[in-house]
Amino acid sequence: MREAEFIATLRPFATHPAARSLADDAAVLGDLVLTHDMIAEGVHFLADADPRDVAWRLVAVNLSDLAAKGAEPVGVLLGYALGDGRWDFEFVEGLGEALAAFDVALLGGDTLRPATAAPRTLGLTAIGRVPASGAPSRAGARAGDTLWVTGVIGDAGAGLELAMARAREPASLLEAYQRPRPLLADGRVLAPLVHAMMDVSDGLLIDASRMATASGLAVEIDLGAVPLSDAYRAFRGDDRAARVAAATAGDDYQLLFALDPDLTPPVAATLVGRFADGAGVTLIHGGTPIPLPAKLGFEH
Amino acid sequence: MREAEFIATLRPFATHPAARSLADDAAVLGDLVLTHDMIAEGVHFLADADPRDVAWRLVAVNLSDLAAKGAEPVGVLLGYALGDGRWDFEFVEGLGEALAAFDVALLGGDTLRPATAAPRTLGLTAIGRVPASGAPSRAGARAGDTLWVTGVIGDAGAGLELAMARAREPASLLEAYQRPRPLLADGRVLAPLVHAMMDVSDGLLIDASRMATASGLAVEIDLGAVPLSDAYRAFRGDDRAARVAAATAGDDYQLLFALDPDLTPPVAATLVGRFADGAGVTLIHGGTPIPLPAKLGFEH
After folding, report:
1. Quick one: chain B helix, strand, coil %, rounded to 5?
2. Which helix (H) or strand (E) holds A272?
3. Distance from CA of B191 to the nearest CA of A (A)
4. B24: which chain A residues are within 8 Å (Cβ-Cβ)?
5. Contacts of residue A96 in chain B, CB cutoff 8 Å?
6. Is residue B254 located within the same domain as residue B178?
7. How far, in Å, are A36, A289, B71, B204, B229 from residue B154 at the CA level?
8. How close is the nearest chain A Cα to the Cα of B188, in Å?
9. Residue B241 burial (10 A CB sphere; 0-12, 13-18, 19+)
10. What are the DSSP E strand ranges found in chain B?
């Protein structure tokens, strides 16, 4: 069963408004936001990844969902399968670094010892407090809204390639992949202003397409506007293929948001597209539509 | 690393009072109780278990932690690794049965597709609302308190043996193992009255010993008083060995609680022991102390 089908079979059980019909990245229960994300060896991290980086990633991907709701993190619950002692010890080190970096407490969780050695799967539940203005969803974009993304896109995807090749440079690209930083402060500033917001975990194109679908709209994205870092351009160039690679790579954990066209966001962000009535994604390059890539991003 | 060591290394990160120093079965954040429990193939369920029973178990073990806090369930977040279609489909069926049976909504969660087929690990986070009287901990027993347990003990352990032997009878023992029922109503009634409460997941002796340790006390348990079902006695007898087997078996999900000696609980429960100053567990049989079994219950 594919993820989308599985979620469709679960939807009848989402009988509480906090579930937002399972169409959002987090549940919103009173003034709390709750999210649960897992990461798995061979899917979200490499078998030879530094356990400290794995722990950091587990925390960061969950806090990134809170950032997209404008929430202030309160704490996390950890679901951990015990392995060999050194891995476990280094994982705890990285967990401590991440919790300290983002000022979040460990509230509880569960550990187990698997029956057989197997690729690791780790889970985390993050709890945050909703801003007074409410938690934005991914479904609120309006026709005419502009689409913005924070920071730069593609660095983490390039960093993953470097990590797979066991390369050590360029360090900034590796760092973007190994130590993603959830944009909690940006999320809090943006939450009262945006019509819709989500984090870019699977790729700019696929995540923008999901926001458009959830909002019942079409979205047009200007490939030339996708913000690339100098390091990315030095590594992969700045042609159309390099831009498509950036726009379809995952793991950037930037914030993607829909804004009233009369507003300019008060954070470092780039205008990359626009919503309109209709459905689907249109990709523009040099002023004209170009064919969509076969994959818009990472699909589960 | 053993579970206890691992939790000790995590304790410095439990900087929020909601964490209860990681010494309790759930976090208590404002008026909410949050718990996260995982179950794994080969550890908590058999490889050939009915996926519907696995889903039921995942929900039941988490709601049982809420029951021990006297909490009213609000919803759950599911962490699920997709497998083959039929297993996934039947899992969803069982999940629906359990959520309906206990009137709980699915609020969200995450799915992933593992890189390789491996024994399944499933996680659930359950959220409940704390009673006005507060959520009891496992650490509040006082010297002189009586120790009580709801229902009967040992049926699930016998049921596990039957399931491993692929037996179909006695049905009530198999049912106790395959479809544990979290005692939510009993928990709500007991919460305002008890000094300490927890669920019996790993065995009566080990869980009573954990309550005594957390409370800084000794506990004496009368093996002859441990409540056994007629089905259990018919299956395994009623001698000392049968009683030790029941008192050290897991998966019963009864409630274990410490009560002022002047009180009698308003639910179906049996007086099985007493707390005193000191430390450790003393097991009594026929009025005299007997040696403790090598294992007090299931240890992770």
Report:
1. 35, 25, 40
2. strand A269-276
3. 21
4. 108
5. 12-13
6. yes
7. 34, 68, 25, 9, 8
8. 22
9. exposed
10. 27-29, 32-40, 72-81, 105-112, 121-129, 146-150, 196-200, 218-222, 254-259, 269-276, 280-285, 288-290
User: Which of B125, B53, B11 lies closest to A99 in space, CA to CA?
Assistant: B11
Pairwise CB contact (< 8 Å): B10 & A78:
yes
Asked if the Cβ–Cβ distance from A36 to B116 is below 8 Å, we say no
Q: Are residues A109 and A170 in the same domain?
A: no
Going by pLDDT thresholds of 50, 70 and 90, the confidence category of residue A300 is low
Return the bridge partners of A280, or none. Answer: A218
Domain assignment of residue B174, given as a range: 146-290
* Shared-domain flag, residues A189 and A273: yes
Predicted interface score ipTM higher than 0.90: yes
Separation CA A33–CA A59 (nearest Å): 15
Residues of A in contact with B14 (CB under 8 A): 105-108
At position B207, the amino acid (one-letter code) is D
Q: What is the spatial order of strands in the sheet that B105-112 belongs to? A: B27-29, B32-40, B121-129, B72-81, B105-112
* Nearest-Cα residue of chain A relative to residue B90: A9
- Considering the domain boundaries, does residue B138 fall inside one? no
Both B89 and B152 in one domain: the answer is no
CA distance B49 to chain A (A): 15
Residues A197, B299: Cα–Cα separation, whole Å: 44
Structure-block tokens of residue B151: 């229902």
| Partner-chain contact A38 B110, CB within 8 Å | yes
Number of neighbouring beta carbons within 10 Å of residue B242: 17
- Output the CA torsion B200→B203→B205→B207 (10° steps): -40
Give pLDDT tens digits for B248-276: 999 999 999 999 999 999 999 999 999 99
B81 contacts A19? CB cut-off 8 A: no
Is A107 in Cβ contact with B18 (below 8 Å)? Answer: yes
pLDDT along chain B (300 residues), means of 10: 88 92 90 94 90 97 97 96 90 97 95 84 95 93 98 97 93 96 98 98 97 97 98 96 96 97 98 98 96 88
Cis, peptide link before residue A170, omega less than 30° from 0: yes
Q: Last residue of a domain, which of A74, A96, A129?
A: A129
